[in-house]
Fold this sequence. Notes:
7 helices, five-stranded parallel β-sheet, TIM Barrel, two-stranded antiparallel ribbon, 2 domains, disordered C terminus, alpha/beta
Amino acid sequence: MLCVGLDPDPARLPAPLRGRPNAVEEFCRAIVDATADLVCAFKPQIAYFASQGEEPALERVCEYIRSEYPDVTLVLDSKRGDIGSTAEHYAREAFVRYGAHAVTVNPYLGTDAAAPFLAAGGVLALCHTSNPGAAELQELEVDGVPLFERVATMGPDTRGRSAVGPLEP
């Protein structure tokens, strides 16, 4: 099973696209079209779009994926994690504005912070990430078990779906 990330770094766009008004969208759509028959999911990383003011392009890319490849899961990679009404707004952003099927969340605020996301759609929770500093917290032992393993085994929500799932090994 393959999930393709859509991380449109402006410094790495192909030369023919640089400077074009819809370069980010064109780049992502080309990747989607080239890989759609090979993947189970596309995962646009919201920071790459937001840092360039390209949220409208992200909306159009998400709509394109949903309309042209409806059987492919759309995961909004936002790694959100907040409490109360702020989490509700982040969930609305992911599932209503972008039409995601699932969203990445940072579970280290606890299960109540993930509740608005679970109520609206699928959730992939960070368990153990690949950055060098990940071990500082994620590998801390809690009752003899690394914290990331505890996060990965958190129980199902009230609808029987898993509340979390590993995003990166």
